[in-house]
Predict the structure.
Amino acid sequence: MVSEEQNCLASDGQSVVVCFDYRTQRPVRIPDALREAVERIQGAIPAP
């Protein structure tokens, strides 16, 4: 996030996304379609 008033970085962060199967109470692999959508948003791969 950039502060327009200060013209500098105002905050930075990271997150971890976990898909969770509530029936088995275990984490599960993130579906490929969701993984690709997140990567497109982050700019890691070009849009189709």
Summary: The chain has one domain: 2-42.
